[in-house]
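Researcher: Can you fold this with iron/sulfur cluster in place?
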Amino acid sequence: MLKTVWKSKDEIEYSLKNAKRISIISCDACAKGCGTGGTVGIEVLQGLLREWGKEVVFTDVLYGCCVEDLMRLTLAKDPRAISRSDALVIVSCASGVKSAILCGPGVPVLAVLDSVGCAVFTQKDDIVARSICRGCGQCVVTYTGGICPLAECPGRTKYKPCKKSPENGTQCAVNPLQDCVWKEIAKRGNLTALEALRRIHKAEGVNRLSPTVERA
Ligand code: SF4
Ligand code: SF4
């Protein structure tokens, strides 16, 4: 799922400075999963809007703001209210905001969340949960025990530890405030397979499989 975090209060206030009446659509899928969207997202935003003396004229939650057809159906629920508003705020990742823009709601579409990458939502494994994918395009997490090395290693090494990684001890050579994540990757993952993957990724470049389905 795509992880989102709230923008700063200053940025939201700036975006909404000319809007008095606001419509809100909040994502009930990924954004809800990370605590920014769903009904909670609407409540948080309504709190801010009250503080700034704005009027909320329409709210709805939508499971999958990123699906343009679903966004269109939600906008069709109360087009009069939405057209009376000065802004339509989408509480979702950037894909949901894009989908609303594509629907052409007739009022400015504004964002209040930032998309920071894809993540797993779990209470069970902190290091895997916080190692948010940066979309490098050649994933290695099947051989790192689910930990994204690009997210967790300050040296940004993807296939093996940096040259200064401690042989004894655990302290990271680049950021002494954290442990070397590669110690954990070595325990959970497969460093031999990572080296093989490095060679394959280097050799293949972006020569990806383009599957075709043979029909009998
Ligand atoms: S290695 Fe990390 S950044 Fe690259 S695709 Fe996998 S999770 Fe994403
Ligand atoms: S010591 Fe470990 S975590 Fe720190 S930069 Fe080197 S490989 Fe990465």
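Model: Folded with iron/sulfur cluster in place. The longest helix spans residues 38-51.
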